[in-house]
TrEMBL record:
Residues 86-212 form the 16S/18S rRNA aminocarboxypropyltransferase Tsr3 C-terminal domain. InterPro entries: RNaseL-inhib-like_metal-bd_dom, Tsr3-like, Tsr3_C. Its EC number is 2.5.1.157. Residues 1-14 have a biased composition (Basic and acidic residues). Pfam families: Fer4_RLI, Ribo_biogen_C. Its main location: cytoplasm. GO terms for molecular function: rRNA small subunit aminocarboxypropyltransferase activity; S-adenosyl-L-methionine binding. Keywords: Cytoplasm, Nucleus, Ribosome biogenesis, rRNA processing, S-adenosyl-L-methionine, Transferase. PANTHER family: 18S RRNA AMINOCARBOXYPROPYLTRANSFERASE, RIBOSOME BIOGENESIS PROTEIN TSR3 HOMOLOG. Aminocarboxypropyltransferase that catalyzes the aminocarboxypropyl transfer on pseudouridine at position 1191 (Psi1191) in 18S rRNA. It constitutes the last step in biosynthesis of the hypermodified N1-methyl-N3-(3-amino-3-carboxypropyl) pseudouridine (m1acp3-Psi) conserved in eukaryotic 18S rRNA. This is 18S rRNA aminocarboxypropyltransferase. NCBIfam families: PRK02287.1. It comes from Pichia californica. The gene is TSR3.
Length: 312
C-alpha cells in the first residue's frame, strides 16, 4: 500500500489573499481587546488640559486619577516630563489664587498622583514645571479621608484649583463623574466664596489665616462652655419635664378636691333664720291683728251669754 493512500483528503486551505492579490491582515483579539472605556477615551473632552504624574501608590479601584484617565479626561505624564500649566503639588511654593485663571485656561492643571504616606518616594526634582502651587485650606469629601482637612485626592485637588480661579462649572463637571464628588463643593462652599474674593497668593493666605483663627476661637469657646456647664449636673431634662407635668396634675387634682369639699360643705350647711328689724315690724302687726281677733271673739261670747239669760 502506498503511503497516505487511506488518508482522508485534506480540506483546501483558505487563501489569505484578497481578490486583488493583496494579503489579508489577521487581527488577533488576544492581548489587544479594547476596554469598555476605549470609546469614551476617544470622545471625552474637557475645556482645559488635565495631566498627572502617576506613581501607582493607590488602589486602582479607588484611585480617582486612574478613573479620570479611563474616562479620557486626564493625560498621564512620564517622570522627567514637564508641564506648562498650574501644577498642584506638595512641593509648591505659593498657593493657587484667582490670578492664575489665564494660566489654567491656556495651559491647564496637573497633579501629582501619589499617597500622602509615601511622599518621600516621589522624585519631585524630576517632575513639575514653572507654576508649582499649593492648595489653601480645604476639607476632603472623598470616602477614604472624608472630613479630614487637606487630605484631598486627585480629582478634588484639580476641582479645588479650578474653583479658586473662578471655574466652578468646570470643577462640577469633573466631580460629577463620582457619586460623592459634588459634595466637595458643598462642604467647602464658604471657603470657596472667601477665596474667590481674593486676588493674589498673599490675599488667599491671609483669608486662610483669618478662617483658621475663627475656627480656633469657636473651638475654644465650646471648650469653655463645656467646662463651665456640666450636662450631668443639669440632670435629665426629660425627667424634669415629667416632674413639672406631675406637679401640674397634682395642683389640678388639689383644686378639684377643694371644689368638691366646698360643694359638700354647702350641701351640709344648716340654715338658721335670724330675725332682723323687718321681722320685728312684721311681728308687731301680727300681734295687733291677733288682739283684734281675740276682742271680737270675746264680744261674740258676751252677746251669746246675754241671749241665753233672756231666754231663761
Amino acid at each position: 500500500m502506498a503511503k497516505g493512500k487511506n488518508k482522508e483528503k485534506d480540506e483546501p486551505r483558505r487563501s489569505n489573499k484578497t481578490s486583488n492579490g493583496h494579503s489579508k491582515r489577521v487581527h488577533h483579539t488576544k492581548g489587544r481587546q479594547e476596554t469598555k472605556y476605549s470609546s469614551v477615551m476617544r470622545q471625552a473632552k474637557f475645556p482645559t488640559k488635565l495631566a498627572m504624574w502617576d506613581f501607582d501608590h493607590c488602589d486602582p479601584k479607588r484611585c480617582s486619577g486612574k478613573k479620570l484617565e479611563r474616562l479620557g479626561l486626564i493625560k498621564s505624564l512620564r517622570i522627567g516630563q514637564k508641564f506648562q500649566g498650574i501644577i498642584v503639588t506638595p512641593n509648591g511654593k505659593g498657593v493657587v489664587c484667582p490670578n492664575d485663571r489665564e494660566i489654567v485656561e491656556e495651559f491647564g492643571v496637573a497633579v501629582v498622583e501619589c499617597s500622602w504616606a509615601r511622599l518621600e518616594e516621589v522624585p519631585f526634582s524630576k517632575i513639575g514645571g514653572k507654576f508649582e502651587r499649593l492648595l489653601p485650606y480645604f476639607v476632603a469629601a472623598n470616602p477614604v479621608n472624608y472630613g479630614r482637612p487637606m487630605k484631598l485626592n486627585c480629582v478634588e485637588a484639580i476641582a479645588a484649583c479650578l474653583a479658586i480661579v473662578g471655574h466652578q462649572d468646570w470643577a462640577l463637571e469633573l466631580l460629577q463623574n463620582f457619586e460623592w464628588g459634588p459634595n466637595f463643593l458643598k462642604i467647602n462652599k464658604d471657603l470657596l466664596e472667601m477665596y474667590n474674593e481674593c486676588t493674589d497668593s498673599e490675599s488667599v493666605l491671609q483669608a486662610e489665616k483669618d478662617f483658621l483663627e475663627m475656627v480656633e476661637q469657636e473651638r475654644e469657646s465650646r471648650r469653655k462652655l463645656k467646662s463651665e456647664v456640666d450636662i450631668w449636673e443639669l440632670g435629665n431634662p426629660n425627667k424634669k419635664f415629667d416632674e413639672e407635668e406631675e406637679d401640674e396634675n397634682e395642683s389640678d387634682e388639689e383644686d378639684e378636691d377643694e371644689d368638691d369639699v366646698y360643694e359638700s360643705e354647702e350641701e351640709n350647711i344648716l340654715i338658721i333664720d335670724v330675725p332682723g328689724p323687718e321681722d320685728e315690724e312684721y311681728d308687731e302687726e301680727e300681734e295687733e291683728e291677733l288682739e283684734e281677733e281675740e276682742e271680737g271673739e270675746e264680744e261674740k261670747t258676751k252677746e251669746e251669754d246675754g241671749i241665753e239669760k233672756e231666754e231663761d
